[in-house]
Design a protein that fits this description.
homodimer, 604 residues, alpha+beta, Butyryl-CoA Dehydrogenase, subunit A, domain 2, Butyryl-CoA Dehydrogenase, subunit A, domain 3, 5-stranded mixed β-barrel, two-stranded antiparallel sheet, 11% strand
Chain lengths: 604, 604
């Protein structure tokens, strides 16, 4: 049977070979795992996804989550999935043994989540936020909070959310006004939060909100924001639960991800909402951002998963749909010939190869960043941990953005492969296209990620992260030079590394002069440029691994499999990488600042 | 009040000044019109659109057209609009006086339709197909057909459709199997058609289908296709109407354009469906394609209209939404400052300017091509008419494709301007994003247009069309050289013209060798490259007109208006035109043919 939404063979090749999960498994923290146990886990996730996720994907879109009589009606599968996720360890996977977790590496957890999200990008969202909020409690909360909330969350009985956004503030978290008034050992919470994913759903026994709020008298801006646990129902002395004045006032209906609810919550409408401080006062944003790398990898992964599922849907269609004829050498077609399958038309192949290059490349990017994440936590020496922390920091905005932005392009091409059917609700492609649009907005928009990349990560520690990354890429180039067939591509990539230096030199001039606005004005095109080159590196690595296998006669995968990876690398180098030439021209054309100013007349 | 969906000042500047509609009005055919009458007409169209189109746009999406009990339920405004369109001459506009029409130039008709489509891209579709099918009858049908059908269609009482696509054939029209069996003076029609826009709607007195079918015994392929008038109800001897065995069996629900019905029709299910041949047998496809230039301009125009409306929606939001603060010179933000409007953030300005460049540029492209259309029909000499016919032919695939493809990018940026709200159903941006997706599929996909451009239009008449176009562009470059401030841009464009020659030389090598598949394999990237450069030309023209007005002290528009056009041209030359450098690199990297073949292993 054709792959319906994911290709496990490619996933495993990336995980085991290209990004050698073994390097991570060798760290003491992960001593209980080996390749066999990982393999078993991934196969069971795929089985589970086939049965419990993929079959509900279409109907969850057709019967969207919605607000009714003060609560959110969701598909019955949500509760079933949360319970199963608790049982199968999808929620506790990342937690330490001492916290009741499975202490799995991020690489493996990302592989597991990727498979699930490719099958159904709504259900795993409920788990994702429960994990994120429980992690905040285990990392920064006191024992009492841990004891009260975490076990119920890890077993999937209680859901969790992250409550950051407010209507007047949007991405500008320094303008949060939700208040926390000291009240004995706890606080009275008052305010409202919007865009709360998984914020409420019928059948959940309780929902634990991790809320950013400002303690009365706290400093202005981000320095005065604290983090609170605010449950929908608070525990009573007798071990029961009582309503905690958290009201679901509405939901947001959306163009996509309609199976995943987005809510508008009021806290303390009746002055009876209790919150418990997590960690120290005024450290809320810091805590939130310490968990942000993982969250942003998760966003990129979700987009990569949708792009992957869309690729398989398009590929299956193209393999079955006869239409048109091949051109003869004169450019004419012979109407008496049989129709050909559309996969034989070069333009269709080009679109499919683009989908393949983006979706497999994105997964490779996810694994690489997850590996940095693991090694930043679990490497043996502090020096190594710091090295991988810096690499994780610089890759995070890229891993969030590339799959989200290029994933849109990928799915858009997938729609085009189907022609008019791609636009029709009877086919799944339009659903993927609607779903993927949110990922460039989640957890910091592309503009915000791009400013993070150029304004913070590239320059952090005197450019140390960028230097470390350049060493990684240069090592890859060196290794590829050893293969005659790869050397031309390695040289191309080396030239692009030099081009990156030129571009940065041109942009850094503005930062040196103290003109930060000019420095960051083109951060988004820089992100496009930079991530395109990084993907060239990842494809070169992928092709080298395949080439090594061919040369050494490794039979774990077929020769066709290896050759197809090399072919896709060549496609990437021919059709994607050269775009950076034009982007560099854009980034170095700095005579005028056309996007800076407050002049409204520019838009007349 | 801010422009809600269209900026008439820019539209008129483009129509009157940049593309001098006067050149067309001076032709004998249009002698009855002058600038004042055009001005009056456009203002009344805008008034009408404000009242009868824009207010229904959101609800037509929320209550989509749908199939019920054998017919299509549409919004009540559909019938009201068809009647009004008949009365206001929206249907008869393009027809000659002798056919009961208004004999208006295409430039003006496109301006009128553009305003309407920006207000509501569903309702004008019903008119558009009625015009197209009535035009086929007036051009190629006999007197009897003209007398029976055209007057009712022009008054909006009877709708019209174009029935090309069949399930097994898709874009491959040579595989049409709908049959026509001679039966006295007429034919018995039997077959099915899919994707029929406006194919049926409650309340229409009759619907006149223009159907491609194959007369029994006709040659295979496109040479055996004839065109028939097949009404839903056929006229009876006593002047009444009787059902003609045309059955609506289903509709297609779609991700966008939900207010515009798409139907699946059966003809002759009970062997009682009569069709009347239009013109000669086996000439059907030729007739259809003689009307195709206008239809394809119409598709590009619809996309440009949506991109324009989305631009105004984003601009209005950005002008009203406070969020975040401006960067200080150190890169820090001062939380005690007031929030700034998001329009003051460079990244938001970049996205809005991109929307402006694409949407205004697309409208300019529409007017230019419509002008070629008008002059190809109405120029005084045969030589002139032939010149403009060739220019129309080469511009047609571009005018269909650029607004459809880049319009998607434009609206996507518009969604991003709104952040999370852009994804929410409460805001209109997501509706525009869903709607615009169909335009790259309508009337020949982007892949088909690209093959038409490179495989037919660039080479037609020994490259004569391309030569004529090059002369037009060179003239524009020369004229711009006269302005010191424009000369650097003129030089950049001249260099891009040379680059185009290099690219074509590289590609034509394959055609010369008889390798048409290789020649056309990269037709789509070539389209992107070629249309990007043509848009540079159009922006240079636009800026020159503005510069002329500034220099001569023309006060028809404000200085700010003219300066904003020059600013947008600079934006286009900085942020869009350089992309062609990378695209040229892609197009000239011809050592390997990565998208050609029938090897399925490539996708392993």
């Amino acid at each position: 049977m054709a792959n319906q939404y994911v290709d496990l063979e490619t996933l495993k090749f990336l995980l085991y070979k290209v990004h050698s999960v073994q390097d991570v498994l060798e760290q003491e923290r992960y001593a209980e795992y080996d390749k066999d146990s990982i393999e078993m886990l991934l196969n069971s996730v795929k089985d589970f996804s086939d049965k419990e996720l993929f079959p509900y994907f279409r109907e969850m879109d057709e019967q969207p989550a919605h607000f009714k009589d003060g609560e959110i009606v969701v598909h019955p599968q949500v509760n079933k999935y949360m319970k199963a996720a608790g049982e199968m360890g999808f929620i506790s996977g990342s937690f330490s043994y001492e916290d009741g977790g499975m202490q799995l590496p991020q690489m493996v957890l990302n592989a597991s989540a990727f498979i699930q999200e490719a099958a159904n990008n709504y259900l795993p969202g409920y788990v994702g936020l429960t994990v994120g909020s429980a992690e905040l409690i285990t990392h920064f909360g006191n024992k009492e909070l841990n004891k009260t909330y975490v076990p119920k969350m890890l077993e999937g009985t209680w859901g969790g959310t992250m409550c950051l956004t407010e209507p007047q503030a949007g991405s500008s978290l320094s303008d949060i006004v939700t208040s926390a008034t000291p009240d004995g050992d706890s606080y009275k919470i008052n305010g409202q939060k919007i865009f709360i994913s998984g914020g409420d759903y019928q059948g959940a026994e309780n929902i634990v909100h991790l809320v950013l709020a400002r303690i009365k008298g706290a400093p202005a801006g981000t320095k005065g924001i604290s983090l609170f646990v605010v449950p929908k129902k608070r525990p009573t002395a007798d071990g029961g639960l009582t309503p905690n004045d958290v009201t679901t006032v509405a939901d947001f209906q959306k163009m996509g991800q309609r199976g995943y609810c987005t809510t508008h919550l009021f806290f303390g409408d009746k002055e009876d909402c209790t919150g418990w401080l997590v960690g120290e006062p005024n450290q809320g944003l810091k805590y939130m951002f310490l968990m942000m790398n993982g969250a942003r990898i998760g966003v990129g992964r979700g987009a990569a998963a949708i792009a992957t599922a869309a690729y398989h849907a398009s590929l299956n269609y193209a393999n079955e749909r006869p239409q048109g004829r091949k051109l003869t050498s004169t450019g004419k077609k012979d109407a008496n010939q049989e129709q050909t399958l559309i996969i034989n038309h070069p333009d269709v192949r080009r679109m499919l190869l683009l989908q393949k290059a983006i979706s497999e490349g994105s997964l490779s990017l996810i694994f690489l960043t997850a590996k940095y994440h693991d090694l930043s936590l679990a490497s043996a020496t502090a020096e190594e941990r710091e090295k991988y922390r810096l690499l994780l920091e610089i890759m995070t905005p890229v891993v969030k953005t590339y799959p989200s932005e290029m994933g849109k392009t990928s799915v858009d091409n997938g729609v085009q492969v189907l022609g008019g059917y791609g636009f029709c609700s009877d086919y799944v492609l339009q659903q993927y296209l609607r779903d993927i649009r949110i990922f460039a907005l989640y957890e910091g928009t592309t503009g915000i990620q791009s400013q993070d990349l150029l304004g913070r990560k590239v320059t952090m520690n005197n450019g140390e992260a960028l230097k470390l990354l350049s060493v990684e890429i240069s090592n890859s180039i060196q290794a590829s030079m050893a293969h005659d067939s790869l050397a031309p591509y390695a040289k191309k990539l080396a030239a692009k590394l030099e081009l990156t230096q030129d571009v940065l030199k041109s942009l850094m001039g503005f930062a040196m002069k103290g003109d930060y606005q000019r420095f960051l004005a083109d951060a988004t095109p820089f992100m496009e440029f930079f991530s395109n080159i990084l993907m060239g590196w990842l494809w070169l690595d992928l092709a080298r691994e395949a080439q090594n296998a061919l040369v050494t006669g490794n039979k774990e995968n077929s020769a066709e499999f290896y050759e197809s990876k090399i072919h896709t690398m060549q496609f990437y180098f021919k059709y994607e990488l050269p775009k950076t030439t034009g982007l560099a021209e854009i980034l170095m054309d700095n005579k005028t600042a056309l996007t800076i100013g407050t002049d409204k007349e520019v838009f007349v």
